[in-house]
From TrEMBL:
Cellular-component GO terms for this entry: cytoplasm
Annotated transmembrane regions: none
Entry protein name: Leucine rich repeat protein 1
The keyword Protein transport appears for this protein: no
PROSITE patterns reported for this sequence: LRR
Keywords: Leucine-rich repeat, Nucleus, Repeat
InterPro entries: Leu-rich_rpt, Leu-rich_rpt_typical-subtyp, LRR_dom_sf, LRR_domain-containing, PIF1/LRR1_PH
């Protein structure tokens, strides 16, 4: 059994001699396995720690030799194993949490004296140099000839850039990188995004500049990206519209929509309360939704849009008198902030509530309203 992580071996007796431990971990491979004890001529179970400088490894006997386990932060990939002889603390960090738990369970069994023949352990051997290298966090591929065809991307990647590779779709191997925080697929030929991008639970930046995208899926807007995505670059694509659910991406801080074919912005764009940087230049926007006034922008670029001349008489009327019971109930649910979900009401009603609009007077409306178009709303804030 092996575990890759950062390891610091602290000698507890050093302070008594006026010496200090180094105080910094190093990348290592820990192995629990069988090793022939020359004194007893029997296979005993040992813990072996191999580093880049010492690939043959240091071995520590485990049977009845563990004084204590410290596992308060095991879910964060951290733990400490205190040995009796020699008097050292083996401090582990930056480990995969599940692998660490399995490794500690095996160490407990070895400490309790479980029969070495009964445990599925191999004989300890030195590790290869590549096994003790630090995991790769960043990778940039800027040409098609450098793109990997037969090998996987390093599982530890947090930032991945794949540009100028003429990709027509998102490689499914990228979607297995669960620690990915930044994905840059700019300057390719991607036409459609798979919904499984929403399964990247740590993704904070998604750059899709200069591709062939025609749609942005509503399913992506309702995925885990709602909680993680802060930067989205969809500039230089072929988008005609964004789904109403787009406004569920409420962690967005920066949004780039330049050089598309957008004819309108999402009706409830004001829900993007954290949005500070918005650029949508060179589109086909004739007007902005009234909800636009709710944004707190630091930088706004709408240059090159064919905005129509102001005419406050232009309106869309969707009113029925008296208001339907469904409309009144929907408004009450939203005004009183009553929790709702598909486990309480039909799914189509949930969708209508999520896409509700806000009147200029501040009241919530769902399906009965008069929509007026004013083009001076962007002049009410100090933005350009």
């Amino acid at each position: 059994m092996k575990l890759q992580c950062d390891v610091e071996v602290i000698h507890r007796m050093l302070p008594t001699y006026g010496l200090k431990n180094r105080g910094r971990g190093t990348r290592a491979v820990l192995s629990i396995g069988k090793h022939l004890d020359r004194t007893t001529q029997r296979n005993n179970i040992y813990l072996m720690i191999c580093t880049q400088k010492d690939r043959t490894g240091s071995k520590y006997k485990l049977k009845e030799n563990i004084e204590q386990f410290f596992t308060w932060f095991v879910d964060e990939g951290k733990a400490t194993v205190r040995l009796k002889e020699p008097a050292v603390d083996v401090c582990l960090s930056k480990a995969d949490a599940n692998s660490l738990k399995n490794f500690l369970s095996a160490a407990r069994l070895a400490h309790r004296g479980s029969d070495s023949d009964a445990l599925p352990l191999s004989t300890l051997t030195p590790v290869r140099a590549r096994d003790v290298e630090r995991p790769k966090k960043k990778l940039s591929i800027l040409s098609k000839k450098d793109y990997p065809l037969t090998s996987n991307f390093p599982y530890s990647l947090e930032q991945l850039q794949v540009s100028y590779c003429k990709l027509s779709r998102v490689d499914m191997r990228m979607l297995s990188l669960k620690g990915l925080r930044c994905l840059d697929l700019s300057n390719n030929h991607i036409k459609k995004l798979p919904e499984t991008i929403g399964d990247l639970g740590c993704l904070a930046e998604l750059v899709l500049h200069n591709n062939h995208l025609e749609t942005f899926s509503a399913a992506l807007c309702l995925s885990s990206l709602q909680r993680t995505l802060k930067l989205l670059d969809l500039s230089r694509n072929r988008l005609h519209a964004l789904p109403d659910q787009f406004c569920q991406l409420r962690e967005l801080v920066s949004l780039k929509l330049d050089n598309n074919l957008l004819e309108q912005m999402p009706t409830r764009i004001g829900q993007l309360s954290k949005l500070r940087f918005l650029s949508a230049s060179h589109n086909k926007l004739p007007f902005l939704p009234a909800d636009f006034r709710q944004l707190s922008l630091e930088n706004l670029d709408l240059f090159g849009n064919p905005f129509a001349q102001p005419n406050s008489l232009d309106h869309t009327m969707r009113l029925t008198f008296p208001l339907s019971l469904q409309e009144m109930a929907s408004r009450a649910v939203l005004d009183l902030r009553i929790p709702f979900g598909p486990h309480l009401i039909p799914a189509h009603l949930c969708k209508e509530l999520e896409l509700a609009k806000t009147c200029d007077c501040g009241r919530t409306v769902v399906d009965a309203f008069i929509q007026m178009v004013f083009l001076d709303i962007c002049l009410q804030r100090g933005v350009r």
